[in-house]
Amino acid sequence: MHHRLASSSRRGFLYVTLAGIAWGTGGPTGALLFDHAALGSTAVSFWRLAAAALWLALARLVLRRAPIRPLLAASPVRYLLTGLGLAVCQLGYFAAIPQVGVAVATVVALGAGPFFIALGARERITPALLAAVAGLALLVPSAGAGSAALLGIAFALLSAAGYALTTLLNRNEPDPISGAFLGFVAGAALLLPLATIDGIIPTAPGWPLIAYFGLVPTALAYTLFYASLTTLRASTAAVIALIEPVVAAALGLFLFHEHLTTLSLVGAAVLLAAVVQHARRE
Fold first, then answer.
1. Which has more pLDDT, 279 or 84?
2. Which of 51-60, 62-71, 127-136, 141-150 is least confident?
3. Which of 21, 99, 137, 182 is deepest in the core (most CB within 10 A)?
4. What is the DSSP-derived secondary structure letter of residue 30?
5. How far is Cα 47 from Cα 31, in angstroms, rounded to an integer?
6. Nearest residue to 193 (alpha-carbon basis) of 34, 44, 46
7. What is the pTM of this model?
8. Closest CA to 181 of 46, 58, 57
């Protein structure tokens, strides 16, 4: 029995680590979309969820999953709230950026998420969790003036709450592929009316980016993350997923020739050490 539990935990660690790596490619992809697809933030969020839903619909067909209707009929409110959490997570983050900048929005949204999840799941806030968030704050460059705007902080906290909501609702999802699919459909439907306001049709170069955005940092990442929640505590999975900004920083360094300061490198080391420590406790 102990061996089976250890094996399932290792599988959960692998899933959430892969999810964090996949999420880490989302930031650079989103930046490319803003530059080349002529879309606003709400439209990008809509296409991210809509494309992910299409990919998972294809996956369900290939894997011959059971009909979706009984699953939806059993818990319609759960999947609607999952979609709401996904939509709020996207909208809150993008609304925070103009107010406080990318750095503060990222630190608050990603850093508050594990705290909200631990509180919602009634799990202990560990020193490793605190160290991981401290490492995150060091890793992300300083935002400069205006970073204390309360409205922007509120939007970033709203994003973290949306992330926490979808995480807590999917802790024991028996079919992560179908659960993620229903959440993406609901989230895209909620975002569609807002997305049409600023224009929803991307330019031709945007379509391959949308396909990738929907597949890797969304459909694959969330499915793996939900699968990890069946064997790991929610707060543990959320802390391990904080490797996302480390991956994003590495991609920025190697693909976009961005510069990492010594403080950022220290932050990355602290964050990774905290992730390892938190995983060893499980």
1. 84
2. 141-150
3. 182
4. H
5. 14
6. 46
7. 0.88
8. 57
